């Protein structure tokens, strides 16, 4: 039992590390691609990779059995990425990042409302406040501005809520008997399917000649194979091993990973102010993981 819990926490930490560095690849790609194009290529590569690793046909057993996968694809992939991408048009990246970090709270509350988890205790919410304070300090330490644009904040809250709903949907897929790879593959199928109409809405041509540049090809493969196929499979497995609440708390670590990656890759300075912010986030993570907090 302890080995399974340790494996689940390690998987969640691995995913937070990769997702915390994925922003670099996204920033490179946005110089040549539309945000929807990045999402579509990312989903397509991830689904193809998951199909190769698990090529067994997954015929739907019925609408009722397929609904959790369909809902997970819409909430955690299509809606989450679209709302997040469009929120960045109205709000600063720092503001979006801070609000998105509220996703663990939405996950805990939705699981409680769906009666799939006990009510979060005081320690969980104290940890949430400390982590959010640390995330805010990181943004301030980097000299970024914060704004409260109504549309941008609303879209970002919608994205955080969608990620919370995704956690509930993934827990509902546990009774299907599928492996984590198969679950992730089905989720990506539905996420990709419901993303296709946005090709027409945004009049995208999806030309592949831009991938002739090595940096563009590397970045989309990093996002599709690493940050999507591998990380979503690991994330879904972590949810099975330690639960959605405990897994989602690792989202708090993503700004820390981003800060460290920026220092190592982009040579951005790390100040004492930033180190103090990291301390708050880690303390909040620890409090949220206590049994009387998140019941992890």
Q: Gist?
A:
The chain is mainly alpha-helical and about 300 residues long. It contains 13 helices and no strands.
Radius of gyration: 19 Å
> In what range is the share of β-strand residues?
under 5%
Helix content: over 70%
Question: How many extended strands?
Answer: 0
Oligomerization category of the chains in this entry? single chain
Structural class by SSE content:
mainly alpha
Q: What kind of sheet is the major sheet?
A: none
Q: What's the overall average pLDDT, rounded?
A: 81
What is the approximate shape? globular
Counting DSSP H or I runs of 4 or more residues, the number of helices is 13
The rounded distance between the terminal residues' Cα atoms is: 13 Å
The poorly predicted ranges are 292-296
């Amino acid at each position: 039992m302890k080995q399974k819990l340790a494996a689940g926490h390690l998987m969640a930490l691995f995913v937070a590390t990769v997702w915390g560095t994925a922003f670099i690849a996204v920033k490179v790609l946005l110089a040549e691609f539309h945000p929807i194009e990045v999402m579509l290529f990312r989903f397509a590569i991830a689904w193809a990779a998951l199909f190769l690793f698990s090529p067994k046909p997954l015929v739907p057993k019925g609408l009722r059995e397929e609904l959790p996968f369909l809902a997970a694809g819409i909430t955690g992939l299509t809606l989450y990425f679209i709302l997040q991408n469009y929120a960045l048009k109205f709000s600063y990246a720092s503001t979006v990042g801070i609000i998105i970090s509220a996703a663990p709270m939405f996950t805990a509350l939705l699981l409680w409302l769906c009666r799939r988890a006990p009510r979060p205790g005081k320690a969980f919410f104290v940890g949430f406040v400390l982590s959010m304070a640390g995330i805010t300090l990181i943004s301030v330490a980097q000299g970024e501005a914060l704004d409260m644009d109504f549309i941008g904040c609303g879209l970002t809250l919608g994205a955080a809520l969608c990620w919370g709903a995704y956690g509930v949907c993934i827990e509902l897929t546990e009774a299907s008997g599928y492996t984590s790879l198969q679950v992730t593959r089905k989720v990506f199928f539905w996420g990709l399917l419901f993303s296709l109409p946005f090709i027409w809405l945004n009049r995208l041509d999806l030309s592949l000649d831009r991938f002739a540049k090595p940096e563009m090809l590397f970045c989309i493969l990093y996002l599709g194979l690493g940050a999507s196929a591998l990380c979503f499979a690991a994330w879904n497995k972590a949810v099975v091993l330690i639960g959605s609440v405990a897994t989602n708390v690792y989202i708090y670590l993503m700004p820390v990973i981003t800060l460290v990656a920026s220092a190592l890759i982009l040579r951005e300075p790390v100040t004492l102010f930033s180190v103090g912010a990291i301390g708050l986030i880690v303390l909040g993570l620890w409090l949220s993981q206590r049994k009387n907090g998140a019941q992890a």
